[in-house]
C-alpha cells in the first residue's frame, strides 16, 4: 500500500473497532492486528490510539455536518427543513452505523472535547436561523430561537440513539413524528404567562403543590 492507502485503511479499521469497543476498550495491539500491521505503523501515521481516534471523530463529524448543510441549503418551508434535517440523522445512523456509534460515545479525556455535543451545537445553530425568521414573523422574541433549536436537535439526537437499537418504525416515519410533535407545538407557541420580556415574573412564583391540585390561573384557559 502507499502511505495514503495505509492511512485510509487504518482510519477504516479504527472506525470499526472504536464503534464496537469504544475508546477505552480498544487497544493499539488490536488496531494493529485488525489492519495486519505492526504497532509502529500505527504510531507512524497517527502517533498512537488517541491520534487515530481524533482523526476518526473529526472525519465523521465533517461527514454528518456536510449532510446537514446540504439538507438545509436546499430550501423549502420551515416544516420541510426541520423534517429534512431530522431525516439526515436517521439516514446517517442507518447508512453509517459505525460512525454514529463512534460519535455518540463518550469521548476520552485526552480526545476532542465533547465532539458529538459540539457537532449537535453546530447543527442547532443552523436550525436556529430557520426558527428565528419564523419567530420574528409570528411576533415571538427571535432571541428564544436558540433555546428552541437546542431543544429540537437534542430531542432528535436522543431519539436517534433509541432508534439505533430498534430500527422500527421506519426512519421516515420517526422523522415525521418528531417534526409533528415539534412543529405543532411551535405553531401554538404562546409567551409564558405572567412573564415580562426580560424573563422576570410578575409577582411571586406560585406554589408547585398548590398549582398541581387546583390548576393555577397561569395554566388556565
Automatic annotation (TrEMBL):
Keywords: DNA-binding, Transcription, Transcription regulation. Residues 189-221 are annotated as: Disordered. It comes from the Bacteria. Coiled coil: none annotated. Residues 27-46 bind DNA. The keyword Lipid biosynthesis does not apply. Residues 4-64 form the HTH tetR-type domain. GO terms for molecular function: DNA-binding transcription factor activity; transcription cis-regulatory region binding. Pfam families: TetR_C_32 (PF19344), TetR_N (PF00440). One of its GO terms (biological process) is negative regulation of DNA-templated transcription. PANTHER family: HTH-TYPE TRANSCRIPTIONAL REGULATOR RUTR, TRANSCRIPTIONAL REGULATORY PROTEIN (PROBABLY TETR-FAMILY)-RELATED. This is Transcriptional regulator, TetR family. It comes from Geodermatophilus siccatus.
